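User: Predict the full complex structure for these chains.
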Amino acid sequence: MFLAALIACAFSGILILIRIILGQTTFDRVLAVNSLGTIIVIGIALHGFYTNRPEFLDIAIVYALINFIGTVAVLKLFSTGSLGEQRK
Amino acid sequence: MDLFIDIITGLCFFIGSLSIIIGACGLIKLPDVFSRIHAAGMIDTGGTAFFLLGMILQTGWSLITVKLILIGVFVFFTSPVTSHVTANLARQKNLMPVGKKIGKLL
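Assistant: Here is the predicted structure of the two-chain assembly.
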């Protein structure tokens, strides 16, 4: 059951990688990377259950937070050209 | 009772897998940034909700349940923020939906 769900996660991850490669604008790529991060969070949790080691859930929590912060940081860098430091 | 919980978990995993595969296909197929946000939101809500519900049913009550609920809360709070930031910035950069001219959309 967990193995089938992991295979579904891997398949949709491959489909999203096609969009990351093909994407016309930067926003398409950022959106696809965010969705890939969400699928990786689900995949880490499922892998922890599949191998009977649920300690992987801590890594999944940290990955969810880093995914959000990374997406917002890339969009801010693309928007303003800096990450918030003082301009000279 | 064990078999019943296993069946419900399998059903949750099936709906979640269907949701993320449909979302990934929509992310490839849809023509535009503003419509691809819809597919990404489907992955974030439908997939995550059903997968986490299935895993919660498998564990019962323990610390693992709290961690799964924490993952769900984080994803449910950060997904709308990401969608909003992406759409807002795409609109600021003068991207338009397919078929709309610049200045025709409020």
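Chain B touches chain A through 45 residues (CB under 8 Å).
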